[in-house]
Design a protein that fits this description.
It is a single chain. By secondary structure, the chain is mostly helical. Helix content is 98%, strand content 0%. The protein is built from 1 helix and no strands. The longest helix is centred in the middle third of the chain and has 107 residues.
């Protein structure tokens, strides 16, 4: 009977020890889970902030590109207008010069 009582007490102490260890493990797991959740949330916020910064940079670059394209287009239009004016000037000058020479030659014949 004493052996049986001793065995039961030993089993009871082992069960209590395992229960205590399991409680400790569960507590450790909860703390680790909280730390991981906190790190994940912090990382997610940091990523969202980086994403917002990149989106702002992209928006700024697109706006800058549009301004440059518009400026280039305006400059190109001015250049085309100047070139067309010069071409018209030289065509008129050439035609009037050619026309007066042409008449002179036709009347001489």
């Amino acid at each position: 009977m004493a052996e049986l009582t001793e065995t039961i007490e030993r089993l009871s102490r082992n069960a209590e020890m395992r229960h205590t260890q399991q409680g400790t493990f569960i507590g450790d797991l909860k703390r680790t889970n909280e730390a991981l959740t906190s790190a994940y949330d912090k990382s997610k916020k940091k990523h969202a902030l980086s994403l917002k910064k990149l989106e702002a940079q992209i928006t700024q670059l697109v706006a800058q590109h549009e301004r440059e394209v518009t400026k280039h287009s305006v400059d190109q239009n001015k250049h085309d207008e100047i070139a067309n004016n010069r071409l018209s000037y030289f065509e008129e000058r050439s035609c009037s010069s050619f026309g007066s020479q042409g008449h002179g030659e036709e009347t001489e014949l």
